[in-house]
Design brief:
Ribosomal Protein L4, Chain: A, elongated, 2 domains, 34% helix, six-stranded mixed beta sheet, 207 residues
Length: 207
């Protein structure tokens, strides 16, 4: 097992913790990480774009002018896609862009993302972060002491004061362990784990 220092909110070492190699020491394959991130972004697409077809446009179905003798195109009604304000051909309609991947691949990608943070020395473990009130200034002081200005902070359970205090700090996001995902791990430069969240990660990935 890999051993990593546990710091307090002042950036001082207070203890050490073992990280299981099966989660934090996995060989990283960028193609699998890309595949999972692509799937996550596809799931986030709204897919609500919609156009009006010929049958949806308001207008008369009267033939615009007689069929022969004018020297013009053989026009039908004014809702033709070839005319201004007419219907749209083959335009988008509400749909879901979501697709799925095998659970084993998603679980492995999550392990790779965690391992990449440890390998690149951008993984920090903090014993606890307890705020008596949701003060943004206090969270800024903590991130400065830990020397992380772009970080994903992972908690093991609900930490309302921390979540409220950090939500308007650019480059900082607080997430609970059950919501941990590859995209957010890779999006932020640093990953800050509260010590208790390590057990939650092990329980989720050591299956």
């Amino acid at each position: 097992m890999a051993v990593i220092d546990v710091q307090n909110i002042n950036g001082e070492k207070v203890s050490e913790v073992d990280l299981p190699d099966s989660i934090f020491n996995v060989s990283v394959k960028s193609d699998l990480l890309h595949e999972v991130v692509k799937m996550q972004l596809a799931r986030k697409r709204s897919g609500t774009a919609c156009v009006k077809n010929r049958s949806d446009v308001a207008g008369s179905t009267r033939k615009l002018f007689r069929q022969k003798g004018t020297g013009r195109a053989r026009r039908g009604d004014i809702k033709s896609p070839l005319l201004r304000s007419g219907g749209v051909v083959f335009g988008p309609h509400p749909r879901s862009y979501a697709y799925s991947m095998p659970k084993k691949k998603k679980r492995l990608a999550l392990k790779m993302a965690l391992s990449s943070k440890r390998i690149n020395n951008t993984l920090l473990v903090v014993d606890k972060i307890e705020l008596s009130e949701p003060r943004t200034k206090k969270v800024v002081e903590i991130t400065n002491a830990l020397k992380v200005n772009n970080a994903l902070i992972l908690t093991d359970c609900e930490n309302t004061n921390l979540e409220l205090a950090a939500r308007n700090i650019p480059g900082v996001k607080v997430m609970r362990s059950e919501g941990l995902n590859v995209y957010d791990i890779l999006k932020y430069r640093n990953l800050v784990l509260l010590e208790d969240s390590i057990k939650a990660i092990e329980g989720r990935l050591l299956i």
